[in-house]
Amino acid sequence: MKSAVGGQAGSYTTNPFDLFEAFFGPSMGGFPGMDGSGFGMPRRSTVTKGEDLRYDMTLEFSAAIFGTEKEFELSHLETCEVCDGTGAKVGSKMRICSTCGGRGQVMRTEQTPFGMFSQVSVCPNCGGNGEMISEFCRKCSGAGRIRVKKDIKVKIPPGVSKGSILRVAGEGDAGPKGGPPGDLYVYLDIEEIPEIQREGINLSSTVSISYLDAILGTIVKAKTVEGTTELQIPPGTQPGDVLVLARKGAPKLNRPSIRGDHLFTIKVSIPKRVSTKERELLEELASLVNTPVNRTKTRPKVQQPAQTTESESGSITQKPDESEVQNDLWKQLKDFAGSVANGALKWFKDNL
């Protein structure tokens, strides 16, 4: 029997529970939860989950919008199929750990001002197993795991964004001594394209048109995630106006039926130089808009009484003449064209 009493401080004592058995006998078998290997500490379990792994992946812009499937090669640890993760040669016998005597635990004693203090811990030699490998497996050299390369397929759902993390269960490193494998975490990054920017589930772009197209209206080609489409520019479009293509944005993650919009901000381009003929036409347009006589010059018409309608309550309301509405719209269009022309002429006079 070996006792820690009077021993050197900080020393390991083999078979630390012999003293307990000397007082209470080996038939005590310990308290509930004890397996006879230690005082209240069962032998350490050898089943440990493997390490988790990380893989960084970059997706194309459209692949993040619509989803895709990616395949890549991964290097990870797998359980040795020869020794089944034990690390020992098949048919060989395990030997008892000489440090803990097969208990998997050791007692460390230290001298304190209050007397001797003993602490039970896992055996540093066998790691709590109580046994040591006598002959190592030739394939894994006793590690119980081997490093292999494996092709992994990952399904990317629609609507993922930069920073999204996908978990692939069971594709991490295998656990030691046949333990279960860890998981693989795929961190996503998204390529950017200059034509389209993404803000959540909405997409945004900038469309440049001439000042004449802004006045008269036009149809332009615009790039979307579904390809090139025609974008209708209405007459009188102002710089900074936003046109919306509904449900042409990105789908919501895990809810693909919900989809954002594609927003187009209009940018009106004014040329730095114009030809002599263009300048003459602009000056003529400016004179038409800025001259009060020309602005109000219309075809003579016969004065007609205002049309009235009677409401249910009996009150009389006046209905505007259709020609007056058209003239008012034409006046607004000419005013807008004149303001653009004046701005262009002023720039030419200041810079040419």
TrEMBL record:
Keyword terms of this UniProt record: Metal-binding, Repeat, Zinc, Zinc-finger
Keyword Membrane: no
Signal peptide (UniProt feature, chain positions): none
Biased composition (Polar residues): 304-318
Domain CR-type: 67-149
Zinc finger (CR-type): 67-149
GO CC terms, sorted: chloroplast thylakoid membrane
Chain intervals for the UniProt region annotation (Disordered): 293-327
MF annotations from Gene Ontology: heat shock protein binding; unfolded protein binding; zinc ion binding
One of the protein's GO biological processes: protein refolding
The protein's name in its UniProt record: Chaperone
Organism of this sequence: Olea europaea subsp. europaea
